[in-house]
């Protein structure tokens, strides 16, 4: 397969496997999604979904969140890891949303990325999943699969995002982001596949015999 053929096959196969793409993080609106994505850094979605009901029961709006002591936020989110930093970011971004955005999550990349604890990947998830804007959030897992499938030679997630956006149609970005995550978790895991095991890897590269040495994101 050449790259064009791989792109067409991957998009078609993922659509067959995952015609529905539910958002893995439980949330109620753009604000609770933003908080959940922030908490998911170096933490599993499963763990985040176990923690957020306790946090949102006490505060599910910026106004309610700033009334909680940072220490209380930290105690609730402790199972997610990096709790001191995340708790401070949650408190500060909630204050900024109240002071600068009328208590609403801004629908703009620049404004989102200016919030404490919110990087480009988090902003991309919110823009795509909360507001429906075309975005292609790339984390280390998508970066790994894109390398295995010969979709990028990028050494970091920034380059991989650019490559994926160039290869796939814009109206498929939001869906593909989730489809690749689902497939990576189920079939092309970090330890379960090295570029020679799963269906997509074997179909794209039937003659591949050596494990793929992926570049760290």
The CATH superfamily name of the largest domain is Hypothetical protein, domain 2
- Number of separate domains: 2
Structural class: mainly alpha
- State the name of the first-level CATH class of the largest domain: Mainly Alpha
What fraction strand?
under 5%
| Estimated helix fraction | 55-70%
Q: Would you count the extended β strands for me?
A: 0
Span from first to last CA? 26 Å
Protein name: Endonuclease III
Keywords: 4Fe-4S, DNA damage, DNA repair, DNA-binding, Endonuclease, Glycosidase, Hydrolase, Iron, Iron-sulfur, Lyase, Metal-binding, Nuclease
EC number: 4.2.99.18
Family: Belongs to the Nth/MutY family.
Q: What do you see in this structure?
A:
Belongs to the Nth/MutY family. It comes from Candidatus Entotheonella gemina. This protein has 217 residues and is mainly alpha-helical. It has two domains: 3-20 and 137-204, Orthogonal Bundle (Endonuclease Iii, domain 2); 30-131, Orthogonal Bundle (Endonuclease III, domain 1). Helix content is 58%, strand content 0%. It has helices at residues 3-17, 30-39, 45-58, 62-65, 70-77, 83-101, 109-113, 120-129, 140-148, 157-167, 173-186, 199-204. Helix 1 packs across helix 11 and helix 2 packs antiparallel against helix 8. The longest helix has 19 residues, at 83-101. The protein is elongated, with a radius of gyration of 18 Å. It starts with a helix and ends in a 13-residue tail after the last helix. The model has no long low-confidence stretch (mean pLDDT 96).
């Amino acid at each position: 397969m050449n790259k064009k053929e791989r792109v067409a096959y991957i998009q078609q196969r993922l659509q067959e496997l995952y015609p529905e793409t539910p958002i893995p993080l439980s949330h109620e609106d753009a604000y609770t999604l933003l908080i959940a994505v922030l908490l998911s850094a170096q933490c599993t979605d499963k763990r985040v979904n176990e923690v957020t009901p306790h946090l949102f029961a006490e505060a599910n709006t910026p106004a309610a969140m700033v009334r909680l002591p940072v220490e209380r936020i930290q105690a609730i989110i402790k199972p997610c890891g990096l709790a001191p930093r995340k708790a401070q970011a949650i408190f500060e971004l909630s204050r900024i949303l109240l002071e600068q955005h009328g208590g609403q999550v801004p629908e703009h990349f620049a404004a989102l990325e200016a919030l404490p604890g919110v990087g480009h990947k988090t902003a991309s998830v919110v823009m795509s999943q909360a507001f429906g804007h075309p975005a292609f959030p790339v984390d280390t897992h998508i970066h790994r699969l894109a390398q295995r499938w010969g979709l990028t030679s990028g050494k970091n997630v920034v380059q991989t995002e650019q490559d994926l956006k160039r290869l796939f149609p814009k109206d498929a970005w939001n869906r593909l982001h989730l489809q690749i995550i689902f497939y990576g978790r189920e079939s092309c895991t970090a330890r379960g596949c090295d570029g020679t095991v799963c269906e997509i890897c074997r179909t794209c590269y039937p003659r591949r015999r050596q494990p793929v040495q992926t570049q760290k994101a």
